[in-house]
Amino acid sequence: QVQLVESGGGLVQPGGSLRLSCAASGSIGRLYLMGWYRQAPGNQRELVATITGGGTTNYADSVKGRFTISRDNAKITVYLQMNSLKPEDTAVYYCNLRNVISRNDYWGQGTQVTVSS
């Protein structure tokens, strides 16, 4: 079993910054993709960013240039640095880990990010 524990959400003013963290533990395997997704009320869950074990990143167009995803393979932890936050970034952010071989998906419990003045 795989556990993902997120932290770092909260309330921030427009233009502000937040950093999310997600630590994984359990039977993860050697090859896995990590990423962040978000879901706003009334919307489907959408991709924010992903990162491979080698550091290749992929971003949603809406966050390019503002968000940065990174990971620490030794700690099995993924981070999301969010700058220049906008009200439309308000959502529950979910950490994801995908085992590349089995293609099993694991999800964190979600952390609320609210951007409001």
Quick structural overview:
With 117 residues, the protein is mostly beta strands.
Q: How would you describe the overall organization of this protein?
A:
By secondary structure, the protein is mainly β. It contains no helices and eleven strands. The strands form two sheets. Strands 2, 4, 5, 6, 9, 10 and 11 form a seven-stranded mixed beta sheet that branches. Strands 1-3-8-7 form a four-stranded antiparallel beta sheet, with no helix packed on it. Strand 4 and strand 5 form a beta hairpin. The protein starts with a strand and ends with a strand. The relative contact order is 0.33. The model has no long low-confidence stretch (mean pLDDT 95).
Compute the separation of the termini in Å.
40 Å
Instruction: Give the overall shape.
Output: globular
* Spatial extent as radius of gyration: 14 Å
Helix count equals 0
- Tell me how many strands there are: 11
Weakly predicted, low-confidence segments = none
What percentage of the residues does DSSP assign to strands (E)?
over 45%
What fraction, in percent, of the residue positions are helical?
under 10%
Mean pLDDT: 95
Structural class: mainly beta
Instruction: Output the helix-strand order.
Output: EEEEEEEEEEE
Note the main sheet.
Answer: 7 strands, mixed
